[in-house]
Amino acid sequence: MTNSMTELYTVQRYLQYDSLINANLQHFDSWASTFGDTTTSVELAPEGTGYRARTRFSQFQNLPELMGMFGEVADIKTADTLDLPRPKANFHTVVVKPTEIQKEMVKELSKRAKDIHDKKVDSTVDNMLKVTSDGRKIGLDQRLINPMLPDDPGSKVNACMENIHRIWEETAENRLTQLCFCDFSTPNSDGRFNVYDDIRDKLIAKGIPESELAFIHEANTEAQKKELFAKVRSGNVRVLFGSTFKCGAGTNVQDRLVALHDLDCPWRPADLEQRAGRIVRQGNMNPEVDIFRYCTESTFDSYLFQTVEKKQQFISQIMTSKSPVRSCEDVDEQALSYAEIKALCAGNPLIKEKMQLDIDVAKLKLLQSEHRNQQYGLQDNLMTHFPKQIETHKGYIEGFKADISRLETNTHKTEEGISPMTIGGKTYTDRGEAGAALLEACKSITTTEAAKIGKYRGFDILISFNTLHQRFDCDLKGSMTHSAELGTDSFGNITRINNAFDKIPQRLRSVEAKLQTLNEQVVNAQAELEKPFPLEAELSEKSARLAELDAELNVDDNAGTEEREGDVKLPEHMAEAETSAAKTDPFYNAQPVEAIPKHKPSLLESLERGAEKSRALFGGVTEKSKQEVII
């Protein structure tokens, strides 16, 4: 899964369509209603400045059944299960401020989106694909909109260039290498401005030899790619620029990589994973590496990271080595890292606070869920597991003690050194004869089931053939069973049987120690069961604050530009964008969220308000309408 939950359904349709039919899940609606769950939350608008409520799939349910079915055709292996020797990755988020021109262009995006949504513009003139493309350009570099615009020294392109140059200088002695990813504004041959050439020209001006800078786009054949990759591995090329498509899977240049730069954000979380996989990879000589992710505040970047965050949330629920639970909440370390970047991208301090609280509350709820699971596990142990184990071990102790008493009563050593042994109805007191008779009894065994062949020191002797280890086993049955492995030496077999008896006191002490441990575990479990969730106060406080922020940030879709009591004023550069963006969503159907009023109306007041709205829209009830209703 790389992009959406529908991919899992598509894979199942290809590989196990009959199973879907048998479960009556061959149609997507049935499959989604069975295994998917929807949630409504406030999200950033595509322009990067506003917010709105969205209802979308965010978690899977009935996971044991889903993974049981999917496991018939899939074998999931993740990095934590493979445990390969890989370098430690240190992630850095570089957030830059937008210019005034970028702020104005972002506001203009919102106006365009509103006009498109209201169908005021023909789709051949302007459409949401163009808005999206322009949004990505604005977030990357304002010169992509118009190359005559000034080169902002504080842009993320220049921030990336400065980091590349700094690391190039610091790692010159070992000739370590770097990789820079950018899927937008790739090199071209028509002379248009692009960030690839811009960064390379600036790095050359700072003193980096041109021969140490390379674009993956310059290698057009497999032979040229192999040659380029070899130069990167040897350190002759120290900075490689590429897109996820051309420089992602299959690019093995990790030997000297010490830093990776994500200049833009792709649409799919799998693309970010592929990028990181170029450097966090087996065969890298560096024990630690740095991954830089660049974003421009209050632009389309925030929406892009929100998009990959939402997609990663449910992908991580399936593509994991952990045992599935009944339902899986949308909490994952990778998804949370994207959420943190999204929060940094947001310009409104209230949105920043809400995003951070979303992260904190999600983490606390996960810890609370783990605490509850531990409590349930302790309750289950106290009610069923521990009592059952304690009674079982008490029974073992009684059995071992009874067998020790049995041995003392029935051990009568003869001059030959053994107590009388009865095999096949005949009693032997000679060690050699008893051992030989035991071997003969083994030859008479015709099944793998244990067969009683005699008696020794008060214990029944049972012989069986172990097909797994291809040997004969001897079980000495009293109150407990004591086993010995038989060989081909008649004297040695008698010794093995006696050794099994000699180990009974040791086994008794082991069981007594286990019983004591169980009793201690009961005491500890009872003490742990009384402990509350240690972060309950923090969770309650942050949840309450999050609810307050959700109420403040909610937008009344029908409010227009008129301010109402309880509404929140946005910063000046965002207010105009948010007014028009509140009704517009280029990708999903908007769900307007009413601002929470200070006075909650009663049921009667609500009915009266509804009647007033009906009369305003349709007028009063006339005699004619009454007749029509009767008819």
How are the SSEs placed, and which strands pair?
Layout: H1 6-15, H2 17-22, H3 28-35, E1 36-44, E2 51-61, H4 63-70, H5 79-82, E3 88-96, H6 100-117, H7 128-140, H8 156-170, E4 177-181, H9 195-205, E5 213-215, H10 222-234, E6 239-242, H11 244-247, E7 257-262, H12 269-276, E8 288-296, H13 300-318, E9 327-328, H14 333-345, H15 349-410, E10 421-423, E11 426-428, H16 431-443, E12 451-456, E13 459-466, E14 471-477, E15 481-486, H17 490-502, H18 504-529, H19 536-553, H20 572-581, H21 603-618, H22 623-630
Parallel strand pairs: 3-8, 4-6, 4-7, 5-6, 7-8
Antiparallel strand pairs: 1-2, 2-9, 10-11, 10-12, 12-13, 13-14, 14-15
Helix pairs in contact: 6-7, 6-20, 8-9, 13-14, 14-15, 15-18, 15-19, 16-17
Folded structure, characterized:
The chain is α/β, with parallel strands linked by helices and 631 residues long. Helices cover 50% and strands 14% of the residues. It contains 22 helices and 15 strands. It has helices at 6-15, 17-22, 28-35, 63-70, 79-82, 100-117, 128-140, 156-170, 195-205, 222-234, 244-247, 269-276, 300-318, 333-345, 349-410, 431-443, 490-502, 504-529, 536-553, 572-581, 603-618, 623-630, and strands at residues 36-44, 51-61, 88-96, 177-181, 213-215, 239-242, 257-262, 288-296, 327-328, 421-423, 426-428, 451-456, 459-466, 471-477, 481-486. A six-stranded parallel beta sheet has the order 3-8-7-4-6-5, with helices on both faces. A six-stranded antiparallel beta sheet has the order 11-10-12-13-14-15. The longest helix has 62 residues, at 349-410. It starts with 5 loop residues before the first helix and ends with a helix. The model is unreliable at 325-345, 555-600 and 617-631 (pLDDT under 50).
